[in-house]
Amino acid sequence: MSVELIITLSVVVLILLIYTLTYFIRKKHYERIDGLDKVKKELHTKIPVEKVSTLDKMMITGQSKEVATSVMADIDTIEDENLPLVESYLFEAEQATDRYRFGQSTKIESQAEQLLQKIEENIIIASEKIEELLQREQANLRKIDSIKKRYHKVRKELLAKSFTFGDSINSLEDKLGIMEGLFMSFSDLTASGDHEEAKKIVNQLDAKLNEMESMMASIPEINNKIENDYKKQLQEIKQGYNKLIEKDYKFPESIDIEKKSEQLTEGINHLKELLAQLELKKIESEQIEVEKRIDELYDAMEKEISAKRELAKLSRKMPKILYYLTTENKELGLELDRIGQSYQLDQGEHKKYLVMKSILEEQETLIAKVSDKIEKNEISYSVALETLEESFEKLETLSHSYEEFRLRLYAYREKEKEIKEDVEEMEYALREMKKYIEAQHLPGLPDDYLDLFFYTTDQLEKLSTELAKHKLDLTKVLELHSMCDEDVEQLADKTEEIVDNALLTELTSQRLYRYKEEHPEVIETIKYSESLFLDDYDYETALKMVREKLESIEPGAFDSVKDLYKKEMQKQNE
Amino acid sequence: MKNGVYTSLDIGTTSIKVIVSEVINNQMNVIGVGSERTDGISKGLIVDIDETAQSIKKAVNQAEEKAGISIDSLIIGVPAVNIEIEPFHVNVNVSSTNQEINDEVIHTMVKQIREKKVSSDQTLLSIMIEEFIIDGFDGIKDPRKMVGDQIECYGTVLTISKTVLHNIKKSINNAGYVIDDLLFQPKAMSELIMSEDERRFGTIQIDMGGGQTTVSAVHDQQVKFSKMIKEGGYNITKDISVVLNTSLKNAEKIKREVGYAFVDENDLNNSQSISIDVVGQDQKSQVKESYIAEIIEARAAQIFEQVKAELDEIGALELPGGVILTGGTSAIPLIEELAEDIFEVNVKKYVPDFMGVRYPSFTNGISLVYYKSSMDDLHEMMNHYALFNEKEPPKKMMKAQENGTSELSVQQYKDTQDKSETFMDKFKKFLKHFFD
Fold this sequence. Notes:
The complex is a heterodimer of chains A (574) and B (436).
Chain A (H helix, E strand, L loop, with lengths): L2 H44 L2 H9 L4 H37 L3 H59 L8 H24 L2 H52 L10 H20 L3 H63 L6 H27 L5 H59 L7 H22 L5 H40 L7 H16 L2 H15 L3 H17 L1
Helix pairs in contact in A: 1-3, 1-4, 2-4, 3-4, 4-5, 4-6, 5-6, 6-7, 6-8, 7-8, 8-9, 8-10, 9-10, 10-11, 10-12, 11-12, 12-13, 12-14, 12-15, 13-14
Chain B lengths: L3 E8 L3 E10 L2 E11 L3 E2 L2 E2 L2 H19 L5 E6 L4 E11 L9 H15 L4 E13 L2 E4 L9 E12 H14 L2 E7 H9 L2 H6 L1 E6 L4 E7 L2 E8 L3 H12 L3 H11 L6 H5 L3 E4 L8 E4 H26 L8 E4 L8 H9 L3 E3 L13 H12 L2 H12 L6 H9 L3 H10 L6 H13 L1
Parallel strand pairs in B: 1-6, 6-11, 12-17, 17-18
Antiparallel strand pairs in B: 1-2, 2-3, 4-5, 7-10, 8-9, 8-10, 12-13, 13-14, 15-16
């Protein structure tokens, strides 16, 4: 095949390809335009033409009229402007496609599509509004029917049970009157065709009726409470108070029962007034106040009644506890004096005693005064009871304080005994130590040990002297005691240490002696250690010498010597 | 003192004690101590050989561990039980006047002593020489290497019951040890605790042991009298236990810790109390220390009274040296005051003062090694003849020699038996030194 043929064929193929392609694109555009046209036609059929004409013929005024006009205007716009505009878009698109201007065509097609969407939305909104306008009247009529039924029911109940509403009946009837008026204006508005206004009236009526119904549900109960409960209770309080006064009861000055009753009466009356005005909310809060007052008055009276009983009981108890504490006070005074002769009381016991004594006296006077007042009926039972109870509590605390005080006083003796026992034990321990160290038959004892021993003995002597004093100074004794305690402990440790060191020196020397052949210098070491042992009684250094030497020759040997020593000591102690 | 290592065995009633000491340059060093409680001895006599052998072994092992050497022979102390002490006088004619008096003569003398002085149930234990007289010249200490026709000897002979000695020997053998020497304990003790003057002028020693108390009178360097009283510290413990109704263990502890043996008026008035556990009671009971002291004093006084009766019989309390107390029970404080009160002579207490041995309970043990090391040749030889009835060196020595044991044993042997060294010994010694 020649090149020309190939080119020719290629061109033919290309032309064919381009042709096919354009054909399909155009076909697609035509399809879309057809589709949009179809939608446009559908929308046209959706316009509620009949309903619009019905609305147009309807007798409407006022607000309803305004709404109807605007809706109809909207429909007109769709019919006269929007749809034709779509029509022209589609035409333009078709033309553009014919001329292979696919870009322009696509743009116009989407404009048409958007517009169609908007038109659809507007049609839906307008249809709804028209529907509503057409239905309004019907709805209003249906509602007013049910409201009327409820109204009649309420009215009937109000007339039938007027007594249960107390003073509120007039206000309630007024409310019925108002509603009556509203019904009238509803009829007028409906007749004139202003269904929107009529609907507002319907809503008003509904609200009023709701209020009315809820009031009528709660008022009987409130009225019942005011008329039956509160008033009866008030009466009972007044009667009870008079009876108590007759029986010589006194009330504390802080509670003026008469005045409070007066206030309560006023409160109840005010409640009634509020009920007449239908101020149910206010009533609710004031009711709480009134009930509180009633409770208060009852409580006050009950308190007096029970106080009388309690007071009788407590009055019988008081002299006993007073007698007990007075005796205790006297006894402790004597004890204080007695123990004070044997010990230096260093914890402010005298002062403490005086404070307790003054508390007792104070309470004694107070009780006498209150008793006197009770006798002369000058004091309310509750106040008297409170005072006596307080006093009783104080006396009880005082009794505990006396107990503690007594223990504190006796503690001196206990402490002394304890220390004396301790001193005996320490003396015993010292003698034990002396015996123990003597039994070891050591060549001598180091000076510092002897010093410590004699010092400890002296300290113990001092402590014994202090303990033997006619009037014991426990603070000083305790101080000395703790010092002695420490000294004895230290001495015990030291004793143990010396014996251990001495015996270990001997054992270690024996062990070290084994090496005299291989290490001739050990003889020197042992001799030196021995001289420290025998002449200076310095067992510690003596041990150190042989130990160090032994460790240098046979590491670990000292530990085995020590173990052996420990075992032997244990065996001895068994 | 002769250099060497000496190991002693003190068979006491409550405990068996072993002391190893080494003598160098006249100085004795204790190098190991073993002590073991035993139930095999009663009142100074062996009643259970196996039990005793066991305890001996344990005590020796302890001492071995401490001293770091192995021990195979022991110097044994023989107690003053079933013994007879008698003065003797023997007379031997030397055949040739020119011949020096030698060991043969000494041996003949021992033989004579045995024939004259030892009854059939007794056996010769030891000979203490006062003096030799050669041809009328008296006061001779050692007649050997002298010449003379007639040689006489005055002294004291000590015999012991065959059974007692047998039991001792048997126990030692059963324990697996060889007897180095058997020494009369009171004699050994007197050598240690008394000064030469005290021994010469006369002194009494009382060894207060656990199960027995041994009183001996020493005069002219010889033990002239020795008697064992079969009561000791253990009886004190038992008394405390019975009177206070507490266990023996507690009683022993109380005795050791708070006991003393002499109560005076002062003590009775202000004595401290201690609390003790009482059998059958939950609570401790309080006992005054002076009360315990009274218990101790009662028994101790009873023992001393018996001792006094014995001593009075022979008039020994007239001896100028007074009384020396020692032994474990003498550790009770104030016991010397009590003794002084009873004996009415000067009383002192002896406590050993060697490094590692500072308790009176070790006096016997330490005195055995001390005596053995300081014994003179003549006495050693005579005792050897007396004991083993032969001229050969003791078996132990041979054994040690053959085994070529420790250097110490060889050295000891060399010092004591220098003259009887054989050729083999010399050869061995040479080899040893050569390799060293």
